[in-house]
Give the backbone structure.
Amino acid sequence: METVLLQINNNKAYQLLKNLEDLNIVKVLKKSVLTDKKKSAHDFIGLISKSDMDLIDKAVEQDCENIDLDGWK
């Protein structure tokens, strides 16, 4: 036996795999469900290092000090 990782691109392909599983030809080991859950800022906590965050903060502060009054026209 060999284990492979597949990406299923449509429902017909998934149904085909389910049919093969019903015939004991293949076995689905793991099913992941994609949801339309919106990302929250809390999902990213800890992903950016402190030093990178300091660089981002500095860049934002510098750019926010430069106001282009004609930029909104």
